[in-house]
Amino acid sequence: MVEQKEGTTIVLFSGEMDKAIAAFIIANGAAAYDHEVTIFFTFWGLNALRKDEPVKLKKVWLEKMFGRMMPRGPKKLGLSKMNYMGMGPKMIQHVLKKHNALTLPQLIELAQEQGIKLVACTMTMDLLGLQKEELLDGIEYAGVAAYLGDASQAKVNLFI
Questions:
Q1: Cβ burial 121-158 (10 Å sphere, 16+ → b, else e)
Q2: pLDDT for residue 126
Q3: What is the Cβ-side half-sphere exposure of residue 61, based on CA atoms within 13 angstroms?
Q4: CA end-to-end span of the chain, whole Å?
Q5: If you compute the radius of gyration of the chain from its CA atoms, what whole number of angstroms results?
Q6: Which of 41, 98, 110, 156 has the fewest other C-beta atoms within 10 Å?
Q7: Could you tell me if residue 20 is left (phi over 0), alpha (psi between -120 and 50 degrees) or otherwise beta?
Q8: Is the pLDDT at 2 greater than 70, yes or no?
Q9: Which DSSP state fits 15?
């Protein structure tokens, strides 16, 4: 009989840099402990998966506005506290570099290397007018039922 790995799932609802960093630190740590890990990105959490550069796509007016208003990628996310008109994220990035800690883009890359399932919520993508071409390569797309399937098999389920 094959022993099933422990499981960890994280719902990343927040689009704030510090919360996304925490989610990826936990996810990468769980993967290092040989857990099957899924991060399910919904609503503002999807911004962490956006590509840095704009992608030319045909969109209706409201979808274009959402695209312009939301941060484009992990480097552009604000902080949950002490954002200080964009200075907070720069300060956090400086502290990360000073302590040789991984940045959010590096944590995302490590997660992909470790085989962590990064799942974009398709319903939220539809609501916000996001298309697959706008998100990072190598991620999965699914609805809440797929997340619940992973969560029902996991011992650790977090909502960030």
A1: bbebbeebbbeeebbbeebeebeeebbeebbeebeebb
A2: 94
A3: 0
A4: 35
A5: 16
A6: 98
A7: alpha
A8: no
A9: -
